[in-house]
Amino acid sequence: MDDTKDLKDSKKLISDIQAQYPRFSKGQKLIAQYILSNYDKVAFMTACKLGDTVGVSESTVVRFANALGYSGYPKLQAALQELIKNKLTTVQRVEMAKEYSDDYTILNKVLKSDMDNIKTTLEEIDHKAFEDSANRLLKARKIYILGMRSSFTIAQYLGFYLDIILDNVHIIRMDMGDAFEQIVRIDENDVIIAISFPRYSKKSYQIVNYAKEKGAHIISLTDSLFAPVASLADNTLLVKSNMASFVDSLVPALSIVNALIVAVGMKEKDDIKEYFDDLETIWDRYSVYE
């Protein structure tokens, strides 16, 4: 099995470990037993840490990953993270970050995690899906943007700039009446952008499912093909989002949103220039800025 191992295989990882258990060496069986009982912890342990915990060498841990068909331990770890990240409670996320010994360690690990996530996102994102998404936004009669809980921050940011460019944007807000009332007129001429990250909101899925039934084009911005909204999407923009702590990192998602705004804006640059010319006149007349 190579590095392009399908995401779907992580769903059967536990059953694979159980099936291969009789063939494992003594040390590998210790690892297998620990993973089966504590896979939510192992998903965020280094190979060295896992080896120390169960009493085997780091090389034994690497060979265990190879025996399961992974090119290395990081691939096994990624599969475990994919398997459990939507099930982690906030308490468990706090627990997995308890080894951050001081403020500098936190600063270093969190920023490095964001950098790695952006780099991986750039390498793996579907360029055609990104291009089609930008074109769909330009052609849409109306654009609906959905983001629940922490994802609402991204939805607001995207909506603010798209509204400058296109002037047909509606951010679905939970404080402005029922969400279904806000999209009741959605149809095949419209686009809905659904931003969804673990722990996935049931409400988001329900809203997107309704939009799908009405024939709208669905663009999902999410971290996994397992995400409920991804199963409904016409275009999925996958964002790498390994968790560094109990706080969801929005940095990679914000980068994709920035790129999408610029891509749409460059196709409408003459209109944008005129718009900002008018704004500058207003800002100057009413002394908006120092």
From TrEMBL:
<dbReference type="Pfam" id="PF01380">
    <property type="entry name" value="SIS"/>
</dbReference>
<feature type="domain" description="SIS">
    <location>
        <begin position="133"/>
        <end position="271"/>
    </location>
</feature>
<dbReference type="Pfam" id="PF01418">
    <property type="entry name" value="HTH_6"/>
</dbReference>
<dbReference type="InterPro" id="IPR047640">
    <property type="entry name" value="RpiR-like"/>
</dbReference>
<dbReference type="GO" id="GO:0003677">
    <property type="term" value="F:DNA binding"/>
</dbReference>
<keyword id="KW-0238">DNA-binding</keyword>
<dbReference type="GO" id="GO:0003700">
    <property type="term" value="F:DNA-binding transcription factor activity"/>
</dbReference>
<dbReference type="GO" id="GO:0097367">
    <property type="term" value="F:carbohydrate derivative binding"/>
</dbReference>
<dbReference type="InterPro" id="IPR046348">
    <property type="entry name" value="SIS_dom_sf"/>
</dbReference>
<dbReference type="InterPro" id="IPR035472">
    <property type="entry name" value="RpiR-like_SIS"/>
</dbReference>
<dbReference type="InterPro" id="IPR000281">
    <property type="entry name" value="HTH_RpiR"/>
</dbReference>
<dbReference type="InterPro" id="IPR009057">
    <property type="entry name" value="Homeodomain-like_sf"/>
</dbReference>
<protein>
    <submittedName>
        <fullName>DNA-binding transcriptional regulator, MurR/RpiR family, contains HTH and SIS domains</fullName>
    </submittedName>
</protein>
<dbReference type="InterPro" id="IPR036388">
    <property type="entry name" value="WH-like_DNA-bd_sf"/>
</dbReference>
<keyword id="KW-0804">Transcription</keyword>
<keyword id="KW-0805">Transcription regulation</keyword>
<dbReference type="GO" id="GO:1901135">
    <property type="term" value="P:carbohydrate derivative metabolic process"/>
</dbReference>
<feature type="domain" description="HTH rpiR-type">
    <location>
        <begin position="11"/>
        <end position="87"/>
    </location>
</feature>
<dbReference type="InterPro" id="IPR001347">
    <property type="entry name" value="SIS_dom"/>
</dbReference>
